[in-house]
Amino acid sequence: MPKLNKFKVTVETGDKGTEGPIHFCINNHKVPFEEVKGSTAPGETFEGEFEVNSFAHSLTLVGPEKGEWEIKKMKVDFEPDLNEPYAVTFGAVTLDETTEVNIWKDPPLPVFDV
Q1: pLDDT at 11 > cutoff 90
Q2: What would the pLDDT profile of 53-80 be if each residue is shown by its tens digit?
Q3: How far apart are CA 66 and CA 64, in angstroms?
Q4: What's the confidence (pLDDT) of residue 97?
Q5: Within its chain, how far is the Cα of 78 from the centroid?
Q6: Does a structural domain hold residue 112?
Q7: Which helix (H) or strand (E) holds 3?
Q8: Which domain range does residue 47 map to?
Q9: Name one GO molecular function term (predicted).
Q10: Has this prediction a pTM greater than 0.70?
Q11: Alpha carbon distance 26, 51 (integer Å)
C-alpha cells in the first residue's frame, strides 16, 4: 500500500441529485473535500480534491445526509508517492444517508518486458 499524496473524484450525477457538502472517509475519518468544483444537482458534474499525504487503508465516498444521490459514473485520480499517477472508473451507484461506496483501488502492478 503506497502513501497517497492526493486524489480527485469526478462524479456524474444521474436523475437524483443532492445538496452538499460532500464528504469522504479515509481510514474511518469523515472529511469534507478541500477543493470543490461543479454541482451534485441532477445531470451535473462534481469534482472534489484532497491532499492526503498519508497511507490510505480505506477510502470511501459518503452518501448524503438526507435523500438519495444517484451517481451515473465516477472517476478517481490517484497521485501516490513514489509511483506513477493512475485513475479508476466506477459505474452507477445510488447512495443515501446509510451508505458509502469504496473508491480505493491499489495501483496497477508494474509490467516488465521479458
Answers
A1: yes
A2: 999 999 999 999 999 999 999 999 999 9
A3: 5
A4: 95
A5: 9
A6: no
A7: strand 3-13
A8: 3-102
A9: helicase activity
A10: yes
A11: 12
Contacts of 114 (CB under 8 A, 6+ apart): none
Mean pLDDT, range 3-27, rounded to an integer: 95
Task: Provide the strand spans (E) within 20-113.
Answer: 23-26, 29-32, 35-38, 45-55, 59-62, 69-80, 86-90, 93-95, 100-102
Read off the C-alpha cell for 67. 435523500
Which residue do the cell numbers 501516490 mark? 80
Assign residue 21 the CATH number of its domain: 2.60.60
Separation CA 113–CA 108 (nearest Å): 16
Residue 109 within any structural domain of the chain = no
Does residue 111 belong to any structural domain of this protein? no
Round to whole Å and give the CA distance between 114 and 92.
Answer: 38
Neighbours of 19 (CB within 10 A): 13
